[in-house]
């Protein structure tokens, strides 16, 4: 077993962002980073004694290697050509890793929003919000196509040209849309049991009605079940409570409005269905770690 290192790059929340800032501060504003797993392993920066709680979205593509990876409470044996999509707040732990070959990509929700643009597609949900399909095992054709985009991202990440940010945004969007289309097909094949189907319906309803329906009971009534039952199966399938999914939809839309619109906080609050903008301000801070005005000011400064 390898001796774990205190220099695990995941545990140093600002380490890589500072490294990027020295080269090009515009990338670190909307954090995106990409690293070779072999180099991280060689430098003892991938294993740790305890799980690390992620601050950002992440995609790990392990092309070759051995060991294990634990995501939240589930432990998986590393196999060749496995891909893991991770969300902020999830716990990640690598153990007994040898001869890893692949990539680790990490990006903030703001960078992902910029890559997604103003579309309301379900790309984020397909890859990062549905926990019943934690791993992706790409076939040979998919591997080849992924390699093209990933190599371009890796090259551009190390290139400090004027349009680096725009190119990385575009490449990340292509990669996420491509993965989403593949995962959606596999997920549809697996969503056959009653609980999974109900969670799928719940998530669809939330995306349609979160502006006007913010209580779990509203969606339980739509699905003809009790709020407690809905919470239980949503937590079992997705790893999060029903109320968490509702709150995240509201916060995500609030951030979209902060980035892409000129609405004031009061106007955004009313748009999102809050009659009291002070209540909205407290809600936003509790669910994002920052008040709305500070978030919007940061966005404007970085524009």
From TrEMBL:
Q: Where is the signal peptide?
A: none
Q: Which residues form the HTH araC/xylS-type domain?
A: 200-298
- Please name the GO terms that the record assigns under molecular function: DNA-binding transcription factor activity; sequence-specific DNA binding
What superkingdom does the record give?
A: Bacteria
Reply yes or no: does the keyword DNA-binding apply. Answer: yes
Query: InterPro entries this protein is in?
Result: Homeodomain-like_sf, HTH_AraC
The UniProt entry, under Pfam families, shows: HTH_18 (PF12833)
- Keyword Zinc part of the UniProt annotation: no
Keyword annotations for this protein, in alphabetical order, are:
DNA-binding, Transcription, Transcription regulation
The name this protein goes by in its record: AraC family transcriptional regulator
Q: Tell me which species this is from.
A: Lacibacter sediminis
Task: Tell me the lineage of the source organism.
Answer: Bacteria, Pseudomonadati, Bacteroidota, Chitinophagia, Chitinophagales
């Amino acid at each position: 077993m390898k001796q774990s290192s205190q220099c695990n790059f995941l545990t140093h929340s600002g380490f890589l962002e500072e490294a990027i800032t020295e080269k090009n501060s515009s990338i670190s504003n909307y954090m995106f980073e990409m690293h070779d797993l072999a180099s991280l392993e060689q430098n003892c920066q991938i294993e740790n004694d305890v799980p690390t709680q992620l601050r950002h979205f992440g995609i790990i593509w392990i092309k070759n290697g051995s060991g294990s990876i634990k995501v939240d409470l589930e432990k998986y044996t590393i196999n060749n050509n496995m891909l893991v999509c991770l969300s902020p707040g999830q716990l990640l732990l690598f153990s007994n890793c040898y001869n890893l070959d692949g990539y680790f990509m990490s990006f903030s929700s703001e960078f992902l929003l910029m890559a997604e643009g103003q579309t309301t597609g379900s790309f984020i949900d397909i890859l990062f919000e549905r926990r019943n399909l934690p791993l992706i095992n790409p076939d040979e054709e998919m591997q080849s196509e992924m390699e093209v985009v990933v190599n371009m991202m890796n090259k551009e990440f190390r290139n400090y040209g004027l349009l680096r940010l725009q190119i990385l945004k575009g490449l990340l969007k292509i990669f996420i849309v491509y993965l989403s289309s593949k995962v959606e097909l596999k997920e549809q094949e697996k969503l056959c049991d009653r609980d999974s189907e109900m969670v799928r319906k719940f998530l669809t309803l939330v995306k349609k009605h979160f502006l006007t329906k913010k209580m779990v009971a509203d969606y339980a009534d739509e699905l003809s079940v009790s709020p407690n039952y809905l919470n239980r199966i949503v937590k079992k399938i997705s790893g999060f409570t029903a109320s968490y999914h509702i709150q995240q939809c509201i916060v995500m839309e609030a951030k979209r409005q902060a980035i892409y619109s000129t609405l004031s906080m009061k106007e955004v609050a009313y748009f999102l269905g809050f009659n009291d903008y002070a209540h909205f301000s407290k809600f936003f801070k509790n669910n994002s770690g920052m008040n709305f005005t500070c978030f919007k000011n940061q966005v404007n400064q970085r524009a």
